[in-house]
């Protein structure tokens, strides 16, 4: 997961970068210029989930206000060296989601960001159940039919984007930008299709009904949905017509 990190002090920056890397973050160090000229980036599809972590610098309230005024909805966290209730109140009132007194580990930051992100997407609980699949928002691999399904780090990052949007659809461009947007090497967007094909196959193999659960809506994106949905005139079974599209077929279910 990418995180924007604002820490003007070089010594403190080096320590934070090391801590975040150990917790499998992909930190992007930013300067004052980021808040003055590059905020349009955060409004791009796929960037809205990326947290912004600011150190307890005198300009952080100004930066937070500028972020929120620009329409930024990203999680914003403030990290302080020592407790300062008045400064914390100012930061939270300006639009910060959390104000933390250090030292703090990268894993704790991940948990705090996960909580903010899932609420942003309308999920109050730490997991969501879709058919045979249980998706967790704390970095764990999902369960299928009660059994853990092992995913690679990249597969999990892509699956998380689909799960966070559930039951809504998420576009391929949003997934791509969320996973690869700040990477030095930019693969072709077809890589998303390849990873989703792998994830679908793993779910299908573990699902009692052989249901891949990830639906492809041609030209629009993907959604996490069970094979059987309820309709007014009875159950409807979804059967894949190919790897990129599904047709709705009525089935008589006993």
UniProtKB/TrEMBL annotation:
Keywords: DNA-binding, Phosphoprotein, Plasmid, Transcription, Transcription regulation. It holds the Pfam family Trans_reg_C. One of its GO terms (molecular function) is transcription cis-regulatory region binding. The keyword Coiled coil does not apply. SMART domains: Trans_reg_C. It comes from the Bacteria. Residues 125-226 bind DNA. InterPro entries: CheY-like_superfamily, OmpR/PhoB-type_DNA-bd, Sig_transdc_resp-reg_C-effctor, Sig_transdc_resp-reg_receiver, WalR-like, WH-like_DNA-bd_sf. One of its GO terms (biological process) is regulation of DNA-templated transcription. Residues 125-226 form the OmpR/PhoB-type domain. The keyword Transcription regulation applies. Residues 2-117 form the Response regulatory domain. The modification 4-aspartylphosphate is found at residue 45. One of its GO terms (cellular component) is protein-DNA complex. PROSITE patterns: OMPR_PHOB, RESPONSE_REGULATORY. SUPFAM superfamilies: C-terminal effector domain of the bipartite response regulators (SSF46894), CheY-like (SSF52172). This is Two-component system, cell cycle response regulator CtrA. The lineage of its organism: Bacteria, Pseudomonadati, Pseudomonadota, Alphaproteobacteria, Rhodobacterales.
């Amino acid at each position: 997961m990418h995180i924007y990190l604002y820490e003007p002090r070089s010594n403190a920056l080096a320590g934070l970068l090391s801590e975040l890397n150990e917790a499998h973050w992909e930190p992007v160090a930013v300067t004052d210029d980021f808040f003055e000229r590059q905020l349009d980036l955060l409004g791009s599809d796929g960037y809205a989930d990326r947290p912004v972590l600011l150190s307890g610098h005198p300009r952080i309230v100004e930066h937070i206000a500028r972020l929120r005024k620009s329409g930024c909805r990203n999680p914003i966290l403030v990290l302080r060296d020592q407790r300062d209730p008045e400064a914390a109140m100012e930061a939270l009132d300006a639009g910060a989601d959390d104000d933390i007194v250090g030292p703090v580990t990268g894993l704790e930051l991940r948990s705090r960001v996960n909580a903010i992100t899932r609420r942003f997407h309308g999920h109050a609980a730490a997991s969501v159940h879709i058919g045979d699949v249980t998706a967790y928002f704390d970095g764990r691999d999902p369960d299928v039919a009660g059994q853990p399904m092992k995913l690679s780090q990249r597969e999990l990052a892509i699956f998380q984007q689909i799960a966070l949007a559930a039951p809504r659809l998420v576009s391929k461009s949003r997934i791509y930008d969320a996973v690869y947007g700040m990477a030095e090497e930019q693969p072709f967007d077809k890589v998303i299709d390849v990873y989703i094909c792998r994830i679908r196959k793993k779910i299908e193999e573990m699902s009692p009904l052989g249901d891949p659960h990830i639906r492809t809506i041609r030209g629009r994106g993907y959604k996490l949905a069970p094979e059987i949905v309820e309709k007014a005139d009875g159950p409807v079974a979804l059967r894949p017509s190919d790897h990129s599209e599904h047709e709705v077929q009525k089935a008589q279910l006993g």
